[in-house]
Design goal:
Elements (H helix, E strand, L loop, with lengths): L1 E2 L2 H12 L7 E5 L6 H11 L14 E4 L8 E5 L9 H4 L1 H4 L4 E5 L12 E7 L5 E6 L5 H4 L3
Parallel strand pairs: 2-5, 2-6, 4-5
Antiparallel strand pairs: 1-7, 3-4, 6-7
Helix pairs in contact: 1-2
Length: about 150
């Protein structure tokens, strides 16, 4: 999929919000500036977040809960995680039961979320964004709606 401008990247995130369910995990991989946070911001806006969602780069985990959004969401940025064992301390596995996890830089925790909707962004030579997806079985029908 080609995302022609920043607005298209956020719009894709808004479409994800139409089909996302509690316990879903969405991973967002790609280089700095590719649009990972833009997708997360679009999803959070469509779930009801007023204002712009901050990047969780320094906090690592930015939680959102009703009534701020219609579903609990944890926006996670693993960029500063050096060792996958550090994830245990964050309590993400427990939170995944009733929250949507949106995980940037999932390559910092390889194979941690094998059933995630795995999205990868790349910056194309013309400045547009290319998006590819690994769609697990639980997402197959929903993916067709995006």
């Amino acid at each position: 999929m080609i995302l022609r401008e920043a607005q298209a990247t956020e719009a894709f995130g808004r479409r994800l919000a139409d089909v996302v369910l509690p316990s879903d995990v969405i991973t967002l991989a790609g280089p700095l500036g590719a649009g990972k946070t833009s997708i997360a911001r679009g999803l959070l806006a469509a779930l009801g977040l007023a204002g712009e969602a901050p990047s969780p780069s320094f906090a690592i985990v930015q939680p959102y809960a009703p009534p701020e959004v219609r579903l609990p969401v944890l926006h996670i940025d693993l960029y500063r995680i050096d060792d996958p064992d550090e994830l245990e301390e964050l309590g993400l596995d427990e939170a995944a039961y009733d929250s949507v996890l949106v995980v940037e830089w999932p390559e910092r925790a390889p194979d941690h979320w094998p059933e995630a909707l795995a999205l990868t962004l790349q910056i194309l030579p013309d400045g547009t964004r290319g998006l590819t997806a690994e769609v697990p079985a639980a997402w197959k029908a929903r993916w067709q709606q995006i």
